Amino acid sequence: MALLEYALIGGILYGIFFSLVGIGLNLVFGVMRMINLAHGQFIMLGGFGAWLLVHELHLNPIFGIPLAVLGGILIGYPLYYGVVPRLQRSQDPEMLSFILFFGIAQMIEAVMLFIFGADQRSLPGEALGSGNIGVFGQEFPDSWWVAAAVSILCIGGLWLYFTRTRLGFATRAIMADRDEARATGIDVDRVSAIAFMIGLSLAGIAGVFVPYMVGSVSPSIGDSLTTTSFAIIIIGSLGNPLGTVVGGLVFGVGTMLMQTYYASWSNLVPYALLLVIVLIRPSGLLGKAVRSA
Amino acid sequence: MRYPAAVLAILAAMFLVLPHVYGNQSVLFTMMTFMALAQGLNLLYGFTGYLPFGYVGFFGTGAYATSLLVTFTGMPVLVCVLGGGLAAVVVGLILGPLLRLSGAYFSIANLAASQIIYYVVANEALKHVTGGPYGVKIEQVYAPTASYATMLAVLLLATGLAAYFRRSRFGLGLRAMHQDPISAGLAGVDIVRERLIVWLASAGIAGLAGGAYAWNLSVFYPDAVFTLQISVFAIVFALFGGVGTVIGPLLGAALLYAFYAVIGVSAPQYFELLYGLLIVLLVLFLPNGLMSLLIRRNVDVL
Predict the structure, then answer these.
(1) pTM
(2) What domain range includes position B183?
(3) Among A32, A38, A197, B5, which residue has the fewest nearby CB atoms (within 10 Å)?
(4) Is the ipTM of this complex over 0.90?
(5) Which residues in chain B are closer than 8 Å to A104, comparing Cβ atoms?
(6) Is residue A38's pLDDT more than 80?
(7) Residue B258 within any structural domain of the chain
(8) What is the pLDDT of residue A287?
(9) Residue B271 domain flag
(10) What's the pLDDT tens digit per position in A112-151?
(11) Distances in Å between the alpha carbon of A188 and those of A77, A84, A163, A185, B112?
(12) How far is B156 from chain A (nearest CA, A)?
């Protein structure tokens, strides 16, 4: 029973964190109808940002959060206006953007490999509190609780943005129908660019905690984070932050249960979940996935 | 270069003569492997618009099926390579429902499928069957020349198929389907069947290439035949040359692989950066590849 409890509680913490990992991808797809295949690489950049703060400036890794927001704005703004309007005019924006972001992912990975080498880097565990916090007799390191709390704050913040602000309303209008939103006078490019910057910032914030939740960060970690994020947002529903949380929890608890009982097969979990969900309920969970003929 | 037979003859002649001119046969062999893979991927992506990001899954399946057949049955190696191709087709058939997905969902789901195959094959729990993470050894059948000839045959087969798609009624149906599936269906193209045939053909080519590759290497770890980089190379090479044509992927693979062989091996991170940049520039400025430069000038390329 203790094992099961450990797996369930750990899975919930892990899952809440992975909701944050996936949510930026979800937002960018919902607004731009483009798949940011470099999502995992942006998360990795967030992780390295935190690592630099800790090892070069001797700051607490928590300062990686404002750094990630800054990075999201500085990278997101030029990237959006540099490529997206041009792609939207092409014949097949969805597929071409998919390939283009893949190219960007490769470049980020190569540059990081250049600067930092292929080593895996971790952050000092005590920086986010050295103790353990227990629930129902199951103890988890403080860093897990901090990561889960930050994730909840970010997701809640996004929810408030969607439901309480004019920009958020405009964003939801674009998600519902891009052309109609444009027709009602919404500056689609500006609102989308802001959503893109928010998406990248959220990815970067998630990255700050990757060294704690995954164990370490290295330049090559991006691709697996991207596919995991995909699995999570496909299990949840697109465009709905609360849906991502469901996806994250299913993934987190599933992974923890597998790690507890069938450890050698646990890395199959995100991929198998993705395949099963996509094949069984492509229209139920996200209507866009099914071709019309 | 309008005639399929001429393209096939030139291709065959080139790879039969080159080993006598250029000493490093393994570079030539790998170049052929990537030409075959780029062409096999082109069959699917170029003619139907489905981008198989997990294309390497079929390659790895072919490599492992061939190795296991050699290890456990002792059949002639060539039969085992055919078995590798068949195994990839069977996997393709199992993954057939993926074709119900559109665009990027298909690509991602396909990637997930290839990862699953990889994690199963490389799993510690299966080490007595597949060798798990410790890889396979079939050095008892090592035969560089015969495997070189086999890979050439696979390359010619893939190119012949692409030429058939480009010039036949079947291919016309594919192109119609690519542009507008609903209209094509109304015009009498059996889109589900045609799409599945192309998917299986593409999978089979990767499986055969994987088999010949395994034969040539004869000792390898699972990473060597399942690395995502194989998919990536096939995609980038095909895009660079121009998908939907016959010559494009061959040219793209030959040029870029030669480039890789010169600088990529000694400084892989430079190469990764350059090909990332190349992808971005291609998508933005030349989405239909080198061949589109000719097609734009009304040159009739195969």
Answers:
(1) 0.86
(2) 4-227
(3) B5
(4) no
(5) 276, 280
(6) yes
(7) no
(8) 43
(9) no
(10) 998 988 888 888 777 776 667 777 666 778 888 999 999 9
(11) 14, 12, 18, 8, 33
(12) 28
